[in-house]
């Protein structure tokens, strides 16, 4: 029997992820591939040159790219295929008024921050692929404040959540982030606690930090742990 082929509307969104930090690259890849068959990562790259080299064979529908790399590529006059000509979604460390302007100048179709939740990242990929511009609530508030001539409203950096962690929870958090590919059983052995106790600690950490799973935690940690621990 000949297998049925997906229609264009049912075909997965082919995503290339371009990010210099291996932890974030891994987390984004895991997140996107967890939403198969709706979307999948067809290529990953750590530099503009690597991305350009893979572009013809990977043939992505959408490029999810670190903001700084996209802006550098645009300023250097690299081929527009990297940031234009296909749906492009940028991923920035911090959102500033200049960040929004630069995103539009380099031809990107959307902008996310490192504080974006897993659900928001997935939704942004879907909407951007459909041809919509995506700037999310945080970026929209920033733009509106700039138009009004007011000070940008900066999102809370979640330090209150980190401050609320107990010493034991901080130890668990550091261990989880440092051993991102380990199972709960492995992590429990490293911490000399039971899996049940580990799950209880993780549940409390998720609630205090406003994340929902380990993947969200890895992305969150990249933006905040270096400033706190």
Automatic annotation (TrEMBL):
Keyword annotations of the record: DNA-binding
Gene3D superfamilies: 3.40.50.2300
GO biological process: phosphorelay signal transduction system; regulation of DNA-templated transcription
GO terms for MF: DNA binding
Every Response regulatory domain range: 14-129
Domain HTH luxR-type positions: 158-225
SMART domains membership: HTH_LUXR
Organism superkingdom: Bacteria
PROSITE patterns documented for this protein: HTH_LUXR_2, RESPONSE_REGULATORY
UniProt entry tagged with the keyword Transmembrane helix: no
Protein name as catalogued: Response regulator
Source organism (scientific name): Massilia cellulosiltytica
Lineage per the UniProt record: Bacteria, Pseudomonadati, Pseudomonadota, Betaproteobacteria, Burkholderiales
């Amino acid at each position: 029997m000949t297998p049925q082929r997906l229609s264009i509307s049912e075909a997965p969104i082919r995503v290339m992820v371009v990010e210099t930090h291996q932890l974030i690259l891994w987390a984004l890849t895991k997140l996107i591939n967890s939403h198969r068959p709706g979307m999948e990562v067809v290529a990953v790259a750590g530099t503009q040159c690597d991305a350009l080299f893979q572009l013809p064979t990977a043939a992505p529908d959408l490029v999810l790219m670190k903001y700084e790399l996209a802006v550098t590529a645009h300023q250097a006059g690299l081929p527009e295929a990297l940031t234009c000509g296909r749906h492009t979604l940028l991923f920035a460390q911090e959102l500033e008024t200049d960040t929004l302007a630069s995103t539009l100048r380099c031809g990107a179709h959307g902008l996310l921050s490192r504080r974006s939740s897993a659900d928001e990242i997935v939704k942004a990929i879907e909407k951007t692929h459909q041809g919509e511009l995506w700037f999310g609530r945080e970026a929209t508030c920033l733009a509106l404040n700039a138009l009004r001539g007011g000070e940008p409203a900066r999102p809370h950096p979640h330090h209150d959540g980190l401050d609320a962690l107990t010493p034991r929870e901080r130890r668990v958090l550091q261990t989880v982030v440092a051993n991102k590919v380990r199972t709960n059983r492995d992590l429990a052995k490293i911490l000399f606690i039971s899996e049940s106790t580990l799950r209880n600690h993780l549940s409390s950490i998720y609630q205090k930090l406003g994340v929902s799973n380990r993947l969200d935690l890895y992305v969150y940690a990249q933006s905040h742990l270096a400033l706190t621990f």
